[in-house]
Write a structure and sequence with these properties.
Glutamyl-tRNA Synthetase, domain 2; 18 helices; Glutamyl-tRNA Synthetase, domain 3; binds glutamic acid; 12 strands; three-stranded antiparallel β-sheet; 5 domains; three-stranded parallel β-sheet; mainly alpha; Rossmann fold
């Protein structure tokens, strides 16, 4: 074990998105690589927007991607007492104060400041108030010095500085008594012993404020690594307009988790010109040094390409297990058909997603094959009767269907009919699969087996008119 402690801290206000999943993955990989600890913390202090449904959706997605945590999930909603105590500590030490300004007053001040060409920041009205009226209040963190500079070295972005004159007195507790993100994230990251915070660079402006809070609370400051955001092809921030952004939508579209993991990691990290990485490769090779400084562009075609790669090279047994759900959704009764693993093997080369594979597998399960109209018109014609009869007679002789026997059988059919293989295969394909595109004829025959194959040929012959 190393001392490295990292965390992923999603807010449960929706599903797990591509960007969040990548942040989780980077944390996970670094923890695994350095034998550190990976903590999952659910940031549900925004009670109005957090839902159990979102928590479940996030946990499902993490599970699907294989990003199991070492500690957690912890819930911030279980920790309100701790936050209250820490707010009180800052109040007692004079590092925070109660602010009684109403929203209307603040809005008016902001407007006036902007009109005067200044920054719309809090003017410090309540900073030195000594009375404590019986009015609603927020708690603000007193900026330690108005003219200082806070600097940190980001592990990805390098040196980042902010002048305190850019900042104002941050609200750390709302009028309803709930603490705010910037405050609780500091308390938790410190209390949970985080040594490195890896998160999206949408939080980079929060970091100097958080550093000031660490210092005020007497906590050690962790290191930070801010990961650049993900853009759509139009270079705008990735959103629904660019297609599915929720990780589990991809599961439903028939993507494999290893393809998603491989895709996500390459969105912002590289290792020479390698493209294919298993989780164990990544655990070995991942470093923050090779995370790029600029935004990654989401490319659905590349994700699809990776998915096709993992389907092609995947373990058929496992793929069969994953495919079941997709077949069942299509109303297919799996036990009524041929061996599912053999079905998968015949389709691995041809399907880019499990949805495509399920579509491609449907013909194997048809009790009454539906013929594609065009294919039927072209290939199930009266003049094919002799060909079909020859196929039927020869296949009926086979003890079993394997590559060698089928080759001999079709050599015999070619001899009897005087036709080339292609002339025999295409009508047969329509008879066996209903269409003109399918795995190879031998594969189809082997997967269907003798009984089903002969029945399908017979039925096709009945269609010949
Ligand atoms: N809950 C925050 C978010 O979802 C986490 C930010 C952080 O990692 O500090 O954006």
């Amino acid at each position: 074990m190393s001392d490295l402690r990292v965390r992923f801290a999603p807010s449960p206000t929706g599903t797990l998105h591509i960007g969040g999943a990548r942040t989780a993955l980077f944390n996970y990989l670094l923890a695994r690589k350095e034998q550190g600890t990976y903590v999952l913390r659910i940031e549900d202090t925004d009670v109005a927007r957090s839902t159990q449904e979102s928590v479940d959706a996030i946990l499902d997605a993490m599970h699907w991607l294989g990003l199991s945590c070492d500690e957690g999930p912890f819930y911030q909603s279980d920790r309100f007492d701790l936050y209250k105590q820490k707010v009180q500590q800052l109040l007692d030490e004079g590092k925070a104060y109660k602010c009684y300004c109403t929203q209307e007053e603040l809005d008016a001040k902001r407007e006036a400041a902007m009109k005067a060409g200044g920054k719309p920041k809090y003017d410090g009205t309540c900073r030195n108030r000594t009375d404590s009226p019986d009015l609603p209040y927020v708690v603000r963190f007193r900026l330690p010095s108005d003219d200082g500079v806070t600097t940190f070295i980001d592990r990805i972005k390098g040196k980042i500085s902010i002048r305190h004159e850019e900042l104002d007195d941050l609200i750390i507790q709302r009028t309803d008594g709930t603490p705010t993100y910037n405050f609780v994230v500091v308390v938790d990251d410190a209390e949970m012993g985080m040594t490195l915070v890896i998160r999206g660079d949408d939080h980079i402006n929060n970091t100097p404020r958080q550093i000031l809070l660490y210092e005020a609370l007497g906590y050690p400051v962790p290191e930070f690594a801010h990961v650049p955001m993900i853009l759509g092809a139009d270079k705008k921030r990735l959103s629904k307009r660019h297609g599915a952004t929720s990780v589990m939508d991809y599961q439903k579209m028939g993507y494999l988790p290893e393809a998603m993991v491989n895709y996500l990691v390459r969105l912002g990290w590289s290792c020479g010109d390698e493209e294919i990485f298993s989780m164990s490769d990544l655990i070995e090779k991942f470093t923050l040094e090779n995370v790029g400084k600029s935004a990654g562009v989401f490319n659905p075609d590349k994700l699809l390409w990776l998915n096709a790669h993992y389907i092609k090279s995947g373990n058929p047994q496992r793929l069969a297990g994953l495919l079941e759900e997709f077949l069942t959704q299509k109303g297919i009764d799996i036990p009524s058909g041929p061996d599912l693993v053999e079905v998968v093997k015949s389709l691995q080369e041809r399907a880019s997603t499990l949805v495509e594979m399920a579509d491609g597998a449907a013909f194997y399960y048809a009790a009454e094959l539906e013929y594609d109209e065009k294919a039927k018109g072209k290939f199930l014609t009266t003049d094919q009767r002799a060909t079909f009869q020859a196929i039927l007679d020869n296949l009926a002789q086979c003890q079993q269907f394997n590559e060698e026997i089928l080759e001999k059988t079709f050599a015999a059919v070619m001899e009897v009919t005087g036709l080339k293989f292609g002339k025999i295969a295409q009508p047969l394909r329509v008879a066996l699969t209903g269409g003109t595109a399918s795995p190879s004829i031998y594969q189809v025959l082997q997967v269907l087996g003798k009984e089903r194959s002969l029945a399908r040929i017979q039925r096709a012959m009945e269609q010949l008119g």
